[in-house]
Design a protein that fits this description.
This protein is mostly helical. The protein is built from seven helices and no strands. Helix 2 packs across helix 4 and helix 5 packs parallel to helix 7.
């Protein structure tokens, strides 16, 4: 289990409380989904405009409390860190297993909606060349429209875990195609320019 996954239930709880205190209209999962979508579409950790952008769509431009802003910055750093870990699937902030199944399904759906919003905000008018990215975004779009009626059966629990793993893979594919590959190209030395001193 990744560090992000281990801490996710606690982060969800504290961030959800901060968002509620700020009268924010979206929940912690959707908020982190917007963030993850922006990162997948190329938002760099050094970009300082992200906070204004995300607050504009998530809280009508209103600032969070000092504690909420601190938590959001931590979530931003931890999300970036988790995306960069090659052996770890994409980070998704969801409530813990002690929440009712219907709440966890709703949070996954809201996370997916937030992800698509953040991805679109960051990508802008750029076109997508990769069929893998298009297919992954289609999968995420379908999960964003999940039927929220579910019983608490073991079968439903397993189905939710399968969906979560599927979406983590889809998001990681998008990130690898749009961010990681480009960063890998940027750091390769130019052929024929190897100079030894």
């Amino acid at each position: 289990m990744s560090e992000f996954e281990e801490n996710s239930p606690n982060w969800y709880e504290s961030f959800e409380e901060s968002l509620a205190n700020a009268d924010c209209e979206i929940n912690a999962s959707e908020f982190q989904g917007v963030l993850a979508g922006m990162i997948s579409a190329g938002l760099k950790q050094s970009d300082d405009k992200w906070l204004g952008t995300i607050l504009e769509v998530a809280n009508d431009g209103q600032p969070l409390s000092e504690d909420g802003a601190r938590q959001l910055k931590k979530l931003y750093i931890e999300s970036h860190k988790a995306f960069r870990e090659q052996e770890v699937l994409a980070p998704i902030l969801l409530p813990g297993e002690d929440y009712p199944l219907v709440d966890r399904i709703e949070s996954l759906s809201l996370w997916s909606q937030g992800y698509l919003l953040g991805f679109g905000l960051q990508l802008g008018d750029a076109s997508l060349e990769s069929p893998e990215v298009s297919e992954s975004l289609q999968d995420i779009s379908e999960i964003a429209q999940l039927d929220l009626s579910a019983d608490d059966s073991e079968e439903s629990q397993v189905a939710l875990l399968t969906l979560i793993e599927h979406i983590k893979v889809a998001v990681k594919v998008v990130y690898l195609e749009l961010v990681y590959k480009l960063e890998s190209v940027d750091v390769k030395p130019a052929v024929g320019n190897d100079t030894f001193h």
